[in-house]
Amino acid sequence: QLQLVESGGGLVQPGGSLRLSCAASGVAFDYATIGWFRQAPGKEREGVSCISSNGDNTNYVDSVKGRFAISRDNAKNTAYLQMNNLKPEDTAVYYCHARVGREYWGQGIQVTVSS
Predict the structure, then answer these.
(1) Per-residue pLDDT tens for 49-76?
(2) How far apart (Å, rounded) are the C-alpha atoms in residues 16 and 29?
């Protein structure tokens, strides 16, 4: 079992930054591929970024490349999404996702980019 809790969301102006955290409890975090997804109102959930279990491999959706950075600290059972140069179109509920044998989801956290 793995429980995921996101934090760090909120309201930010365009061009600003936020860092999302995904704290995991339970076993097997070290073996999990971690991803961040987001869902904007009226849109389907989309994958934003993912990171391999040892952190060596990362991937990003084209719309966030060069602005977002995913990382993880297995000693702290935590993954992060650093979001820079935020745009209004980044506004969404962001979800942490883990895949290790089965899939796990966090409850989601709101990120709003607006002036």
Answers:
(1) 999 999 999 999 999 999 999 999 999 9
(2) 30
